[in-house]
Amino acid sequence: MLKGFFNVPKAVNEPVKSYAPGSPERAKVAETYKTMWNSQVEVPLYIGSEEIKTGDTKKMSAPHDHQHIVGVYHQADKALVEKAITEALEARKKWAAMAWENRAGIFLKAAELLAGPYRAKINAATMIAQSKTIHQAEIDSACELIDFLRYNVEFMTKIYADQPASTSDMWNRVEYRPLEGFVYAITPFNFTAIAGNLPSSAALMGNVVVWKPAATQVYSANIIMQVFKEAGLPDGVINMVMGDSGMVSDVVLSSPHLAGVHFTGSTGVFNDIWKTIGNNIATYKTYPRIVGETGGKDFIIAHPSANPTQVAVGIARGAFEFQGQKCSAASRVYIPQSLWPAVQAKLEADLKSMKMGSPEDMSNFITAVISEASFDKLARYIDQAKNDSDAEIIMGGNYDKSKGYFIEPTVILTTNPKYNTMCTELFGPVVTIYIYEDAKWSETLKLVDETSEYALTGAVFSQCRYAVEEATVALQNAAGNFYINDKPTGAVVGMQPFGGARGSGTNDKAGSSQNLLRWASVRTIKETFVTPEDYKYPFLG
C-alpha cells in the first residue's frame, strides 16, 4: 500500500440546505442574488497565468429577464486558443509530476470553499444566468459539485491502490500516469456541477485541460475558476476559453497533442467531434480518449399495480423541475388505462399549484428556459401538437417571451406511441403521455425500448415485483440509469454513477471511479530481483 492512502478524508455527500422561509441560508442567498443582479461582471479568458480581455465581448443576460445584462465575457481568437494549448502543455511538466496528495489537497480545498464562503455566490450565479430555482441551484452548483470534488479524490486513491500481485522474486506494480498531452473539456449550460467536474476530474489525475464552457453558463463558470485559483490550482492546469464553438474545436481537435475529450452536450455535436477525431487520427501522438454524455429521451412507464399519486408526482418532478432541461428529465410517459384518470387528476392539481416566474421569488417552482432559440423550438412543437389529429394538449401549452423565456409546464396526450414528441429530444417543460391497454404491459415494454435512439434514464412504477423484474430485464439497454418507483432524475455522486449508452453517450459513469480511470494511462513495471544468467529452461535437460 502506498504511503498516505489511509489518511485521505473520506468523502461524504454535502447536505442539502432547505432554504425554508425565514432560514438564514435563504436570507443569505437573497442578499447575494440582489447584489450580483445589480452589478455587472467582465469575464476574462483564463490562459496560463493571464486573465485576458480581448475586447471582443458577448453580453450575458438572465433568461427570466433577457433585457437585464449581468455582464460580458471576452472571446478568444485562433491564436489565443493555440496559446491555451501551449500554456497547458507547459504546465503539464510540473503538474503531472506533482504528488497526488498535493493535487488532492487543491480540490478538497475547492470543495470546502464551495461549501462555505462561495456557496451563496455560486448558487446565486446559477439562479441568475441559468434560471434555476434556489433548490435546483443548491443541489447542483453547491452540493453536486462539492460531491464531485470530494468523491473524485476518494476514487483516485482507490484507483492508485489497485496493484497487481507480486512474488518473492519479482515486484509488480502499475503506475497510473496522466495522459500524454492535454484534455479538451466541453461543458453544457444546464449543470454548474458538470461544468466544474469535467475539467477538474481530468486535472485531478494529473492532466492539463483546455476548457470551453457553454456561452450560457460562463457567468457561473467564472466563479468556478475563481474557486480553483483560490484553492491553489497552478496556472495553466485548467485554461478556460470562450469563443466561436466551431473555431475553438477546430483548433483544439487539430492539435497533435490532443489526448482526450471530456464532453457533455448534444448527440449531434458529439458525433461531429468523434468524426473529426477519426479524420485526424494519424496526426495525434496518442489515441485520444473520448468520453461523452449526450442526449436523452427519458421515460416513465407505470404498471397497472402502480400507485397513481406516486406516478403523478414522479411526472411532475421528473418532467418539470428546472423546466425539463435536465438531460435526465422525463419526457415520454406510458400509463395504463386503468390508472390514467387518477394520475391525470393528481397531475392537473399539481400543475395548477405550480408558480412560474423569476428564481428571485423563491416560491416559484418554474422559471425560464435558457435561451430564445430553445424557447422558439419548444413553441413550434407545442403549436404543432395543437394542430395534429393524433395529439392533444391537455395541460399548459401557453408561452411568452416578452420579458423572459417562459413556457408553461405542458402535457401532450397522444394516441400515437411514435408521435414526434415521444421520440425527439425537446429539452424543455413538455412531456408526452401515451395510454396503453392494461393487458399490453409486455408489448409496451418493447415499445419503450424501441422508440428512442437514446438510452440515458428511465423509470418504472409498480407494486408488483414480477412486473418490476420484467421491466428491469426488458429495458436493460434502454437506460444507463434505471429507477424503480422514483422519477428518472436526481443521480447522486457516489450513489448512482451517471451515464447512458446508445445515442446518450459512452456510459463512462460520472460520479464513479470508472470515469476517472479514463484519464489515466497505465504503465506496468516488473522488477526481477535475481535475474537469470542461462537461457536454458528445465525442459531442455
UniProtKB/TrEMBL annotation:
InterPro entries xref list: Ald_DH/histidinol_DH (IPR016161), Ald_DH_C (IPR016163), Ald_DH_CS_CYS (IPR016160), Ald_DH_N (IPR016162), Aldehyde_DH_dom (IPR015590), P5CDH/ALDH4A1 (IPR005931), Proline_metab_enzyme (IPR050485)
Record keyword Transmembrane present: no
Reaction catalysis annotation: L-glutamate 5-semialdehyde + NAD(+) + H2O = L-glutamate + NADH + 2 H(+)
MF GO annotations: L-glutamate gamma-semialdehyde dehydrogenase activity; proline dehydrogenase activity
Biochemical pathway: Amino-acid degradation; L-proline degradation into L-glutamate; L-glutamate from L-proline: step 2/2
Listed GO biological process terms: L-proline catabolic process to L-glutamate
Top-level lineage group: Bacteria
Family named by the database record: Belongs to the aldehyde dehydrogenase family.
Residues annotated as transmembrane: none
Protein name per UniProt: L-glutamate gamma-semialdehyde dehydrogenase
Start and end residues of each Aldehyde dehydrogenase domain: 58-524
Upper taxonomic lineage: Bacteria, Pseudomonadati, Bacteroidota, Flavobacteriia, Flavobacteriales
Pfam families in the cross-refs: Aldedh
Annotated GO CC locations: cytoplasmic side of plasma membrane
